[in-house]
């Protein structure tokens, strides 16, 4: 991601996500669809990439619902094609709901973008080691299921945009 306003600066942490299914890619590679909306290319190429079960349909099916690490969630990257479905009112330091000031979490598959319109806001998301100030014009990405909260640093105007990843396009496997 090249947008510096959304860089988390929290290092390279991976987030465990659930496998929704597998779609074939080129040759020996598969695309794993995750419940965060991201996709991961996986191939069996030991010793660096060791997935001996990948070519077996039953073994793949058995792993649907199992966790796998998602590096893109760890970097706070929105899934490709994520679409906004709701935007909150603009809040200031007096109208910011208490629920956003204390730790809260988006449900699976739902993303958010905290946008600071004026002033300064503190944004804290411990799972990704994020604790930073957002200035006017900056934003932070909220991945699903990661607790976070915000705190006005003096006068501020902010809003939250909620986004959804497109449904995965998965082949039927028997
Ligand atoms: Zn992800």
TrEMBL record:
Organism of origin: Nannocystis exedens
SUPFAM superfamilies: Clavaminate synthase-like (SSF51197)
Protein's UniProt name: Uncharacterized protein, possibly involved in tellurite resistance
Residue ranges constituting the TehB/YeaR-like domain according to the UniProt record: 86-160
